[in-house]
Model the fold of this input.
Amino acid sequence: MKKIINGLLSVFKWILLFATFGITFYIVLSMYDRVDKSLIESIDLFIPYIMLLILFMVNVFVKNAPVNKNIFYNLTCCLTFITIIIVGLRAIYDKNMILNEIMGYGINFSYFSDFLSFMQILLYGLSIANILFLFHIKDKNKPTSKKKPIAKKITDIEVI
Amino acid sequence: MKKFIVEYLHIIAYAITGLVFGFSFFLLLLNCYHYRDLHKTYIKQESDFTQEENLKKRLDEINTNISTFNKNAYQGPENSNSLSSIKTRLDLCVRRINTDKFNEILSRKEINIQDVYEMQQFYQTIISNECLVKQLYEISLTENNPLQISTLPTMAPFFEDEINQLIKSTDYMQKIIKNNSSYAFSSDSSKLDLYDQTKDSYYSLLNDYTEAIDFMYDLSVWYKNIVGGVS
Done:
């Protein structure tokens, strides 16, 4: 059960990361386009996303157990991404926020820009935690793959 | 030693993850609360519909009052061009206000903040700008008034005061409504300003509508008295 939940969270984590990045990119692109600012100036908003993407890839390639098998970390990632997505969707679709109507751009930039600093705190927090989880000591008591054939041989002998 | 440091780093990592978890959960709940608050609707009472019916009746009465004047048949002491000008202005005002949009706004059974904003915009653009400023303000001029009516110099200052009061009345409301579009860590007092604006703003606007239309009605009664029912 624990494995299934963790597996689901790990998959959702990846999907939600891309969805979060997409929605943030769309809003920031519209926001900067409105004031004729270059998107390069907004690069600092996307640094935590790039960091997280690299760290997630490292986790997969290095098979970093403290992260990959950590339900709490994966749940926190999903929760953070869901929060960012909800804020993004509200900035676009919540017409009861009157500035959305007054601005006339279809996106409430004021609401989203209020959230940008919180978003960065959350994403940097996840990145730092992931970096710290990268340090771990391999358990020497764990059976290695080399030991398996020997065990098999022993059972073979027993059968004979 | 290495194991100790690694364990210590993991404790810090768990602490950071816990903080992020708590903070994002807090922001999620704050968003839910903000969403719920913004989407509150106010269900109108019977008395509101009565008040709105009265507004429509008032507009019809204004039409009746100004229709007593016929420029071609008028033989009274006042300048008929001036009387005709006032009639045209009041008639324009009534026609601009008594539209489908006005009726649609007033006939809604439930009001949300978006409706309040529409009401405010209607008041600002149609009642305040189109009617009070463009049409009726000239009547209230105390100096160089082009309208030549004997009682106007006495009445003009009162008209001016009333119009000035009505023009300013919804500026503050738009500012308050705009505040609902962002959130932060609000104090209880600022929440009172930010949230639950629907009902209060609706009544405040309905009051402004009533005052503006009452003013136009008073103007039409004054006009009817000048014309003296001569047709």
About this structure: Chain B touches chain A through 35 residues (CB under 8 Å). Chain B has two domains: 1-38, 43-227.
